[in-house]
Amino acid sequence: MEETEFALKKPNAALVMVPKSGKLTGVERKLFNAILMSSISQLKAHRAVHGKDLDGNHVYSALADELLDTLEVGKSNLKSALRKHMLSLRRAEVEWEAPDAKAGVIWSNTSVLPRAEMELRGGRLYARWKLSDEICEAITNTKDFPFTLLDLAQIARLSGYTAVALYEICARYRNNFLKGGNGICLTSASEPEWWVDALTNAIPKLDKKTGETQRREWRKVKNEAVLKAIKEINQETDLEVELIERKTGRAVNLVQFSVRQKRGAAREVQSSHFDLIKQAARMGIAQARIESALLSNTADEIAFALAKFEARYTNKELPAIERPNTYFASILKNIQPIDVVADKTLTVQAAPPIADLERDILQARHTMTRDEFMALAEQTKAHYAEKALSDLNGRNMATPRMIANAKEGVWSPLLLAEMLRIFSKEKAVGIVEQAT
């Protein structure tokens, strides 16, 4: 599986959540994954800036909308129920186990979230939480706590708790190939009771007389939830899962699952659309995001949005874009409708605008004034040169070279313009002077 914006490196020891108090739903298990992904992102950002890890008492926070990016399914309004789901995570206690037959309990009776709260900040809703010490250690020390890469976008399409739990465990074994190279992988083989704990959110009851745990029978859990979860995983994700039961007589004593990585069926993509998808992929934008955008936007609108995204993406003076898909969606949302048409050629000479007519009239007047001035006697023009030099000198605009040239009858453009201005002004009031 490729790492995308919705890829979570979940510690293997946190894949199996055996409930001890409270009750978690499938949505709440997905929310916990989103919280883990956000926490890991914030941890990386802190390391990059400060060169060290966050302490165990750190309170993480994120916009509610960002957490719900990988939870929204269909038309459900999860934002209105976010407080309830956060509270369920706060109250729930679980035992964490690695999905491995040789591994025992890693840690037990741990609150999923030791602290959970909601906050309004600047008119926007934020979730705030604190992780348990064990989870903090697992996401910080990845060398000692191996992880499984989970696609939260695929998990979002799963509806029930059992489907989410089974997908996470099977994803752990997607590369555990059987000998023979037929592309099939196997999970660990465990007792049916282990799978009942791992795949259900019900708290096992204790027998008051014997003190032993009383679980639901495997066959009931299988028929009511597991078979449905397998069908959903096979339809909605990139995995193909099959149940394997090992029996002694008629009794099932071991259960495991085969896991096969699907190869998606080839589908036709327009050449222009494929170019957009490739351009987006180079900047970390998922193919699904572009394909989704093409359902409601033109290719030209998406191309323009990608150009704006690329300008931001290549700006090395700004920090890296942490959520490319979300940032691209925000750009596209503000793109005005675009309809690119062929260039048009004017066949009829358009009338000059009013501003051009006024400019031409002024130019004609200036030409007439210049011609009339140049027809004056040389002595009269020299007289206007003296007046113009005096005026320019009073404004500190007359240079020594300009003055020297004027004495020889050579006028700079600035001096001539000033001479014409004075001449036009005197002409307007009828007092053109003649040199004597």
What do these coordinates show?
It is a single chain. With 436 residues, the protein is an alpha+beta fold. The chain has 4 domains: 1-156, Orthogonal Bundle (Arc Repressor Mutant, subunit A); 159-265, Arc Repressor Mutant, subunit A (Orthogonal Bundle), CATH 1.10.10.10; 271-333, no CATH class; 354-428, no CATH class. Helices cover 45% and strands 17% of the residues. It is built from 16 helices and 13 strands. It has helices spanning 26-50, 64-67, 82-91, 133-140, 152-155, 161-172, 192-199, 218-236, 271-281, 287-293, 299-313, 324-333, 354-374, 378-394, 400-407, 413-428; strands at 7-11, 16-21, 60-63, 93-97, 105-111, 115-121, 124-130, 147-151, 184-186, 205-206, 213-214, 239-248, 251-261. Strands 2-4-5 form a 3-stranded antiparallel sheet. Strands 3-7-6 form a 3-stranded antiparallel sheet. A 3-stranded antiparallel sheet has the order 9-13-12. The chain is elongated.
